[in-house]
Amino acid sequence: MPAEKYHKAYLEEQFPVTLQEHLRADGLDPTHLPTYEYLNTKGFETRGLSQAIQRHFGVEMTLHQFLRQHGFGHQGDGDWPTTHEETINHLNGYRASRRDRNDDADDTISTMETAMREALRVLQDLHGTDNLLLFARYETEASGRTGMRRSWLCSIHSKPTSQVVLLRITPAI
Questions:
Q1: pLDDT at 47 over 90
Q2: Which of 45, 66, 144, 159 is the most buried (most CB within 10 A)?
Q3: In a shared domain, residues 101 and 146
């Protein structure tokens, strides 16, 4: 789609609706924050979209910020798709650590949260549990004492984007 198509009314009214239709058709949550690859695959030219959004809504506005303002992506702080308290505590701790130690930007934190939520949903679908820590425990007490940790990489291929999410969980002793 050429950049001329992305006029202000289209961006505000039609683009979010059309994107939700694509997400539904692909079996995804209609509020899922799509990747640039997904948008390009669906015929939305992300360079043109980004330029039009900056032209109509300010040079500081990114495509993902625009989408979040229109209901895509996670909208609240601290709402994880799990009721397992220990998992929630570790996820919140990881998020706080990223903010404090890495000084990550809000967009980076949001992207990380989206990936972690997707990992939780896939684990729930595949294994029927929302206890993420079940997959990150030491084999034995002795292995924990000797420093031999069993950490898991959770690789999630979410079709049709072929996006891979890697989540490493290393439990404390």
A1: yes
A2: 66
A3: yes
pTM given for the model:
0.50
Does residue 101 share a domain with residue 59? no
Rounded to a whole number of angstroms, the distance between the first and last alpha carbons of the chain is 53
Q: Residue type for 23, please?
A: L
**Separation CA 131–CA 85 (nearest Å):** 9
Residue 165 pLDDT > 80, yes or no?
no
Looking at 34-162, which runs of residues are DSSP E strands? Answer: 152-158
Select the more confidently predicted residue: 127 or 84. 84
Q: Are 138 and 150 in contact (CB under 8 A)?
A: yes
Measured distance CA(58)–CA(149) in Å, rounded: 48
Query: In which region does residue 11 sit, left (phi positive, over 0), alpha (psi from -120 to 50) or beta (all else)?
Result: alpha
Tell me: the pLDDT tens digits for 72-110?
875 554 577 777 888 888 888 888 888 888 888 888 888
Does 154 fall in a domain? yes
Give residue 15's domain range: 3-69
The answer on 132 and 91 residing in a single domain is yes
